[in-house]
Every structure is written in C-alpha cells, then in structure tokens.
C-alpha cells in the first residue's frame, strides 16, 4: 500500500510503499482510510516537539481520520500512540477508540473538524464544570480551533464570548461566528471579568495578558479558570507570581493525559453530529495524499485533509 513516511524528526514525509497493516489485538481492525486531517498535533508529534512523541522511526503520521471498516461502515477513529497513522491507504484502529458515522456524512468535513473542535469541546465538557451563562475569552481565536471554540462555547450556553487574536482581518470576521467582541491581545483587559479563558497560544502572549486581566477584574475573588489547550506562541510562559496571588486564578491544562481517553470518545458522537449538521463552521480542503511533501508545511487558514 501507499503511505506518507517520515524517517527522522527533521525530514519531511515522503509518499511511498509501506507494508500492509496487520490487526493483532482483540479489538483491532484493519480499515480503509478515506480522509485524515493535518492537525497541529500531527505535525508536532512528527517533529518531536509534542510531549507524547515516541521517537521511533520510520513513522506514518496521522492521529485520526474517517475510515471504512471491514463491514462497510464509516467510522471516525482516533489512534493511540502508533507508528502507523492515518496518512496511509489503510491502517489499524482500536474499535473502542472509534465511533460509527452515518453513511451520508462528508468524510473530509468530519476529518477536518473533529480534532480542532474536540479541544474546546472536551475542555468545557470534561476538564471543568462549565455552566450556562458564564463568560469566555478565547486566546488565539483566529485559528481553526479558536474559530470553532467560539461556536462551541455559544452552543454550551456562554453568555458572552470574547475572541482575541493578532490578525485584524481574521478578527473582524469572528463576530459572524458568534463572538460578542473581537479583541487584539493589547485589548484583552476588556474581557477581564470573564469566567473562563480558553488559551490556544500560551507563551509570551498569554503571560503578558494574564496579570493585566487579573488586576482589572471588578472582583478579584471571583474565580477565573484559565484552560491551557495549545502552545502556538511557545511551549513555556513566564507566568508572574503575582498573578497567582492577586486574584483567584486556576490554571489547568486540557489534552492527552489530563482527560482520559474514554472521556474524549464519549464526546465524539455529539460533536460529529454538530459538525455533520452544519452547526459548526468548518474550513477544509482535500489534498491527495501523494502531494503530502508539498502540502506538509503549507501555511493556510483551511484545515488540510489528505485523501488516499
């Protein structure tokens, strides 16, 4: 079969021949891959910058996708740590880490949306107790995951959603997705009294916003939960000690490990339903897997989805 193959952290994937997958465990099944998204997590696991990277090569990247199982049913599958990912014509999935999809779904749309959508969906549903009527600030709202987070927070009953980012052009479009106000990072004190921050950036921008926001809160004893989800601006953030003393700040992370796999899987059917019904705006572009070397580092506002 054909697959995208990575042989070193600093090497781009190469499209080539790869041995056929073999099901070994009781719940394993060999499946045909229909569509697999190129996510930030996929890239970071492939280049060694993600904490869950195994460091074993050769590696076929791809950590989720829409597949067809041996009985002909469509499934969305999330793979555990494996060297045979979804950027291949076929792969092996654990059926317990998958959900059956309706026959009429768009595989490209589902593959594009599930990973970025899952980040805020699971954070609000499984990492904290989010209540209807709470207010949310999204740091990094112009990316795919951030744009979806606006819609997901509103879907869960957020009273106000503030969207913060750098790109003024992209920010201007976010009110059309449900954001009550779009802000630059310099203006985040306007969202000082939110209850939850969904942070997709971390690094200096998060640290720089934290203390001004906390000191501007009308009631510093009111709890603020800062959920660290992504690290597009840096893996480390110089959080000032005063931020932890000056207000009732709770910093938590949401991701692989901090949320059990069973909780992620339990949320997938409802998220897939929302995506397939068009309740969440998705920007996706299908790319032939044979073009992975050219598309791997492409900068685009769309979520690239590889199709064998």
Strand residue content: 15-25%
Q: What characteristic shape results from the CA principal axes?
A: globular
Structural class, by secondary structure, is alpha/beta
Biggest sheet features:
7 strands, mixed
Identify low-pLDDT runs: none
The helix count comes to 8
Order of helices and strands: EEEHEEEEHEHEHEEHEHEHEHE
Q: State the share of residues found in helices, binned by percent.
A: 25-40%
State the end-to-end distance.
Answer: 10 Å
**Rg, Cα atoms, Å:** 20 Å
Query: Could you tell me the mean pLDDT?
Result: 94
Number of strands: 15
Q: What would your notes on this structure say?
A:
- This protein has 308 residues and is an alpha/beta fold.
- The chain is 27% helix and 24% strand.
- The protein has eight helices and 15 strands.
- It has helices at 40-47, 107-127, 144-155, 168-172, 203-215, 241-245, 261-276, 292-295; strands spanning 2-5, 14-17, 28-37, 64-68, 74-78, 90-94, 98-100, 135-139, 160-164, 181-183, 196-199, 224-228, 249-253, 284-288, 303-307.
- Strands 3, 4, 5, 6, 7, 14 and 15 form a seven-stranded mixed β-sheet that branches. It has a six-stranded parallel β-sheet with strand order 10-9-8-11-12-13. The protein has a two-stranded antiparallel ribbon with strand order 1-2.
- It is globular and about 60 Å long.
- The model has no long low-confidence stretch (mean pLDDT 94).
